[in-house]
Design brief:
Structural class: alpha+beta
Strand content: 25-35%
CATH superfamily: Small protein B
Mean pLDDT: 81
Helix content: 25-40%
CATH architecture: Beta Barrel
Number of domains: 1
Shape: globular
Largest sheet: 7 strands, antiparallel
Number of strands: 7
Low-confidence stretches: 1-7
């Protein structure tokens, strides 16, 4: 995905499928452990978190399968595009995520990759429960109705 402005602010990548496939109950903002060429590639607006997921392992939280392509002007010390990246969270937030995943069978998914006001790369993650097919149909119906309603209001309002 390319850099987007507007409703997503200074977002580099947005997981648009997440809110369709999952019911988000809680969101957290996590820092990322990145190398220099990854940050430069993110500043170019190149990243994809659509197929990625968040995995709690060995007392830490990891972002798995996120694609940050190699920096175009990088040298032979460029980064691996799909390497696991450690997420930085407070202990209280991590324990809440671990508990929800283990006890309640919830999932942690990445929602949005962005730069905050201080210029630091952050990842918005959501604690989610998977939607059933019926719920997805309801979401699609509601979205289609809202589009039709906007079209009607625009033409006749």
């Amino acid at each position: 995905m390319s850099a987007k402005k507007g409703e997503n602010g200074n977002a580099v990548a947005v997981n648009r499928r997440a809110r369709f496939d999952y019911e988000i109950t809680d969101t957290f903002e996590a820092g990322l452990v990145l190398v220099g060429t990854e940050v430069k590639s993110l500043r170019d607006g190149k990243a994809n978190i659509a197929e990625s997921y968040v995995s709690p392992e060995k007392g830490e939280i990891w972002l798995i399968n996120a694609d940050i392509p190699p920096f175009s002007h990088g040298n032979r010390h460029n980064h691996e595009p799909r390497r696991p990246r450690k997420l930085l969270l407070h202990k209280k937030e991590m324990s809440k995520l671990f508990g929800a995943v283990q006890r309640e069978g919830m999932t942690v998914i990445p929602l949005r990759l962005f730069f905050n006001d201080r210029g630091l790369a952050k990842l918005q993650i959501g604690l989610a429960k998977g939607k059933k097919t019926i719920d997805k149909r309801e979401t699609k119906k509601e979205r289609d109705w809202n589009r039709a309603k906007q079209r009607i209001l625009k033409n006749f309002g």
